Amino acid sequence: YKIGWLTERHSAFHWVSTSTPAKILRQQIEGFGGHATLFRNAKPTDAVFHPLPDTLFALHKNIKKAFDPKNILNRNKMYRFN
Fold first, then answer.
1. Does pTM surpass 0.85?
2. Is 24:18 a contact under the CB 8 Å cutoff?
3. SS in 3 state form for 15-74?
4. How far apart are CA 34 and CA 51, in angstroms?
5. How far apart are CA 29 and CA 13, in angstroms?
């Protein structure tokens, strides 16, 4: 896979340009305790935001439900609640 790397000074952000599939890259990053957000992607089927573990997804879903019970704000923008 091709990869280009840029690290911002004085922060924990690392910008990567790669041909590595998002799923593989995210698995590798998780091994270091990190996560990845896609800014541009050739495959529209890949999720933009890093998938949450089941417990955090449940918490995220409950908070969203408490603040937006009718699910009218930013519907399915971050995660799908089907």
1. no
2. no
3. EEEECCCHHHHHHHHHCCCCCCCCCCCCCCCCCCCCCCCHHHHHHHHHHHHHHCCCCCCC
4. 12
5. 13
pLDDT tens per residue across span 5-52: 566 666 667 777 788 888 888 888 888 888 888 877 666 777 788 888
* 6-34 CB burial, b ≥16 within 10 A, e <16: eeeeeeeeeeeeeeeebeebbeeeeeeee
AA letter at 59? L
d(CA 50, CA 22): 9
Token pair 């089927």 is at which residue?
A: 45
* CA-wise closest residue to 62 among 76, 81, 40: 81
